[in-house]
Amino acid sequence: MIFPLYNALETLDTNQLEAAKDLGSSTVRTHWRIVIPHAKAGIASGCTMVFMLTAGALATPVVLSSPNTYWFTQLIYQWFNMNDNWSRGSAYSIILLVVSVTFVLLMMRLFKVTIGEVVR
Amino acid sequence: MKPNLAIQAFLGLYILIFFLYLFGPLVIMSVTAFNSAEFPAITPWECFSFRWFNEGKIAYDGQRLAGLVTDRPLHEGIISSLIIAAGVVTLSVPIGMAAAIVLTQVNSRLRTLFYSMSIMPVLFPGVIIGISTVVLWDRIATLGGDGFISELGRNGIFLTILGQTCFISTYCFLIFVARLQRFDTTQEEAALDLGASQSQVFLKILVPYLMPAIGSSAVIAFLASFENYNTTVFSILSEQTLTTVIASKVRLGISPAISALALVIICLTLIGAFFYEISRRSNQRKKDRENKVKMFSEISGNRLVEEQPKFFRIPKSIFVFLLLLILAVLTWQQLIKNNMYGAECVEKAEASKKSNFADQLKLLQQNAESVETTDESEGNASRSKEYNDIFGDQNLFKDFGGFDSDKKEESENGATRSNEYNDIFGDPNLFKNFGGFDNKE
């Protein structure tokens, strides 16, 4: 989350902040009207990255979660490696793929950014 | 503008909490690597020891806990991880570079499409990439019959290299794109004008320009491949990499050897970062000095007296190191003084644990014996005692008579009933004719 946000904020022209202050805007208002719109792509990209990393995580739930709660990736893993039911595992992973892609498209639509801005 | 004190204090607190959250677990884990107890813990501190880095230990109940040096699966995992990482680097750096160069050549409408397609793999969950690789190559291997293709398709390391390259080449691609955006294409045109061939332009202009990007993308590809788990765990099949070895260890029961491994990795990372920073700074200094020399020769005036650069400047960071060193020595002395280090302490802890274990065993035995004695002395009257009943019907094993049928009659008399524990060793006559390990007699 830090890297996309930092990349976005780095390009912010500080003259804009000074101009806003000169024109009498408060800190909060400057933040709301200038900084956040400028960081929009970074926010979208960071959110997408965090969601992807978490939704696709396998090591963390394996190590940390209790034995009777399953994450979706763990379910897929079980269908593949423990139960040897590859078709079912593939079906589940297709669901995961569709959900992730839908989320990315939703974020792109919501923040009105292109995919090139999301991944940078 | 006057900085607000309250805001500053709040900011400091926030930063402190943030770094505690980030590094606290790492510090605690590193400390547990030096505790000699079987479970990674700080509070019941046994002894300070390096056993988890060396040979591990054999626990009091016979369970074998490997240390770093003696852990064979771990070594094999590291080796296959290194092989995979090398393969991924050699594949994904050229792929990323080629894709980035193509991106500069195509027209703008195609470029958007090409760019979005190239960066798609980053957005896919790693699990799915692993699964799709395995499923595809299983099909290919099945169709390929018995030959080379089938073997290739069932080789975990090969599949893992392919699966990881899918998305790691995209990381490389992104790095190359960022570098190529600042490339001046007139250089290429000038070279072509001067009669260079296309391959010469590529080798003498583009590759030297991209060299930093090649280096950083190789490092990133290596690291991403080394620490990857999601893709690897599916595509590795029957082999093991470092991450899968650690994951299976964690699942079986965590041991301080893992903390030791983590500490080693952290130290390697820190040392790498340290030397990288040093070399970067010395390069920077050298460049500055060269610039200065150039400036002097250009000015060629003696108004600016060149100051001799000091050859031996003491960096300030050395004081931090000295402080840490002093702290470490003090802690060490304290440990020695309190007898927290060395074989003695470990032995004492082992002995106490063993006696604990023995006590528990003895307690169990006593319980069992008390059942028997009451049975003998009071007969069926002892039934009324509640605790006897957890062993069920006491006449259940009456006709069983131990493991040797010779004793059956005796045990039915009830005379040897009190010796029932002898029976767990089986027939006492079993080794009668064995006569020791040397057959000289």
Question: Could you please describe the fold and organization of this structure?
Answer:
The complex is a heterodimer of chains A (120) and B (441). With 120 residues, chain A is mostly helical. Chain A has a single domain, classed as MetI-like (MetI-like fold, Orthogonal Bundle), CATH 1.10.3720.10. Chain A has 8 helices and no strands. Chain B is mostly helical. Chain B is extended. About 8% of the residues of chain B have low confidence. Chains A and B meet through helix 4, helix 5, helix 6, helix 7 and helix 8 of A and helix 3, helix 4, helix 9 and helix 10 of B.
Features:
heterodimer, A: 120 residues, MetI-like fold, 8 helices, B: 441 residues, mainly alpha
Concise summary:
With 120 residues, chain A is an all-alpha fold. Chain A is built from eight helices and no strands. Chain A starts with a helix and ends with a helix.
The portion of residues assigned to helices of chain A is over 70%
Tell me the domain tally of chain A. Answer: 1
Q: What percent of residues of chain A are in strands?
A: under 5%
Report the strand count of chain A: 0
Shape of chain A: elongated
Number of helices of chain B: 14
CATH superfamily of the domain at 72-254 in chain B: MetI-like
* Poorly predicted spans of chain A: none
Calculate the mean pLDDT score of chain A and round it: 81
Please give the largest β-sheet of chain B: 2 strands, antiparallel
Radius of gyration of chain A: 20 Å
Q: Would you tell me the structural class of the helices and strands of chain A?
A: mainly alpha
Cα Rg of chain B:
35 Å
State the end-to-end distance of chain B. Answer: 101 Å
Largest interface: A-B, 29 and 24 residues
DSSP helix count of chain A?
8
CATH topology of the domain at 72-254 in chain B: MetI-like fold
Tell me the β content of chain B: under 5%
The CATH superfamily of chain A bears the name MetI-like
